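Could you please consider the sequence and fold following this short note?
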Amino acid sequence: MKSPKTKLLYTGKFEARCPVNNRRDCYDFKIRTGKTIQVELLLEYFAQKKEERIFQEDLAVEISERFKCDVTLAGWHTGVKIVSEVTR
């Protein structure tokens, strides 16, 4: 008998700095994975990003690599919504 496959979805919001104009950008994230991620680790990670200047595209890749997951990251930048997706 085949064992069931777990699918987990983590969603939330966080902020980071735009590397171009230093404004704080707000992001909505979706993390999809087959393994449990401690919420405290997510909160700690995103708290560290609050003042970091980083492009959204690089941030999406970093999240995927750090938590070994698929990521959808949506953010508004000077009136333009950008959605970045990284799959593993």
Summary: The longest strand covers residues 8-17.
